Amino acid sequence: MHPIVDILRREESYHPANYLCKDSTYIIPDTYEYMTYWTEEFRRCIIGYWQNGRFMPPQLYFYINHYRILVSDNSHGKKSKVQTFSRPLLRDVEWVVFYNYYICRGFSGFREDDKYSCNRDLLNEDYMLHGTDINPDLYSSNGDLKKYIPAREYLYRNHEKEYMTPLYDNDSLNLCMMTSRGKGKSMICASLLAHEYVFNGAKTVEELNNPNTIHVIVAAQEMVNSEDTVSKFLQWFDDPPYSSELDGNYVQSPFKVNTFGSLKSGSNKMITQGMEHSYINSDGQQVTRVKGTKSTFSAKTIGKDAMGTAGKRTSLVLFEEIGKSTNLLEFHHSNKHTQYITYKFGTTLYIGTGGDIEKVQSSKKIFENPSEFDCLEFDDDWEGTDKKIGLFLPIYLGDFKYLDDRNLTDYEKGKRVELAKLETFQKRGDTQYSIDIERMNNPINPSDIFLNKKGNVFPPEISNHLKQILIDGRYKTGTKGWLERAGNKKGVEFVNDINNNLFHIDTFPISTEMKNNPSYLKGCVRIYEHPIEDSNTDLYRIGYDTVHYDKDEKMYNVDSLACMYVYKGRLKNSNGVSDTIVAEYIGRLPKVSDINEIAELLSKYYNNAKIMMETNIQANLAYFNVRKLTYLLAAHPLVLSDRKYNSSTVQQYGYIKNPKLAIDLEEWLKEWLTLERGLDEDGNMVYNYHTIYSTGLLQEIISYERGADNFDRLNAMFAIMVSYKAEDYERKVVDEKSIFIESMYKHLPNKYKKKLLC
Hints:
Layout: H1 3-10, H2 32-47, E1 49-51, E2 54-56, H3 58-66, E3 69-72, E4 83-86, H4 92-104, E5 109-110, E6 116-117, H5 125-130, E7 147-148, H6 151-156, E8 166-167, E9 175-179, H7 185-198, H8 205-209, E10 215-220, H9 227-238, E11 244-246, E12 249-251, E13 259-262, E14 269-273, E15 275-280, E16 286-291, E17 296-301, E18 314-319, H10 328-335, E19 347-353, H11 360-368, E20 378-379, E21 388-389, E22 391-393, H12 411-427, H13 432-441, H14 446-449, H15 462-472, E23 479-485, E24 492-496, H16 512-515, H17 518-522, E25 524-527, E26 540-545, E27 562-568, E28 580-587, H18 592-605, E29 610-613, H19 618-626, H20 659-673, E30 676-679, E31 685-687, H21 695-703, H22 712-746, H23 750-757
Parallel strand pairs: 6-7, 9-19, 9-22, 10-17, 10-18, 18-19, 26-29
Antiparallel strand pairs: 1-2, 3-4, 5-8, 11-12, 13-14, 14-17, 15-16, 20-21, 23-24, 23-25, 25-28, 26-27, 27-28, 30-31
Helix pairs in contact: 2-3, 7-9, 15-21, 18-19, 20-22
């Protein structure tokens, strides 16, 4: 549960009606009462509003009081199509979104609070010890440092005093928000855009009177992904409330802003504040100048251009439907420079909607690695993991079916009813696909959001398995260590990492911080089951996804990892587990020879297990050729001699993936993952994927997008599937030959049979 919901419920004095301003329709324009009223309302829209010890952020006050949304008027019957503009409701979901947005804008406490500060400089020991000109707002009236309190905890609480001067000494943050449709997020986002633009980003009354020039941008992959929010912004902006007539004269709304330009005709349009003034200069030329602030509001389609916001210092950027973007990460890295000077002053809102997450990898990476993208972090209380995630709004939060008379959500009821729906669908025999459609459109947990994966053929149930092993700790199984050359029979031994000096790379994707850490990238060998000595030489096989290096042994793709999985085959009489992964190596080393040496040693450790890999990189083949180790390489499999896989390249070892083979590899792996292994002690069916405890591999399976890069673990599994299918194919060929020979033998005369037997 979002804590603020529970806190508001426990506050007896809380009621949304307490936060509504007085009706202004009776106030005559151009009077003292009119000026006094609007001066106070503008002040509340800039510095916020207090009621019974609860602080309402200025953006939220503006939204529920002065924004207008289009609602259906049912007073004429259920079939009435009459629509009217009305104030939005103040629900708990609005408190959640606006409080956290306010944190992202740099809120650091109140000047008048003599005890607490949310300024993150208090956590910086170096700044506190050696900083010059330390912010006086960090000190109480008696000269002591204020006590640090996280901004979220501070804003959520009910205060004993009311303070008048909000501070913004923290760097701004971005916000990644994932939710379902029907949460009013388009209207909320439109109001945030309007507030930033109309008030020129003012955070104090002084800034309102001396406006800054700011730039607000709505971005999306295509115009259709943002047009709903832009249209809602324009509905209010073109005709803001409180316009009136006085003595036959039109009185403009206090929120009316003079602009030129247009947002109405297609993408990449812009409006600019101010008035254009033209005159003839001394040379007889017409000159046009702008009077007033030059703040701009732009609507941009990113398309293939990730540099969509370049060139302006952007105060607020809204990126809508991030799950549909093909270049989201490129956009982030381009856009972030527009929001920095010597500190981060701007905020980007990354908004994703359940049911519209098509490009899973990028949107999931931002949501599940918020700090890497300067986003506000939240504990994952939804699924019990220890990860930090973005802001998630479940389907039942703010849903009218679960609101009480104070517009607060009955969490327990909402979750119970939504889970019961899914159970009903299962009992009546709905397909897993249709149930997943329901889950992703009406998410109860964050992982539901990412179920809609175009180009992903793998079972969505795997996400449940990943969640379970994260909760019960099975992802920690296996033994970390390293392989070293030795004087024993195999020539290699496994050295256990008893001092815990090695890192097992178990996340996908890896963070930027980890990418730049050589110790982390070295990785380690992880053993789930050591080899059975003197076993059938074909019991173990290795799938190897190599790293691309150039002739100077520099990597082409610094995001790529070398991946190796040791597969133990399907022998009924084998000890321990079978038909599963028993060891792995994930990592990246400076030289291609170092990586190939690990493959060599891993193969020898597992009884000279054959290594199946793509052989389009000559440096890898060269390693095994020069050292006379080609006996460790898997031969080019007969199964790929099928006509549809033919290529102009004659291969002796491994395989080369082409588009037709890539599709079959997906299907082969899907078949293997869903093979039934029997029932567990509770009577539930166990599938092959339940034997996988590599969280990185499971995350890649869940996030897989056909054609996307850096699914290195999956590529290693694809190599195993080539071996797996090769075994089946070769067994079939042998069986067919045996049957043919046997049938021919039966028809031979006895004298020839005797000769064959001899």
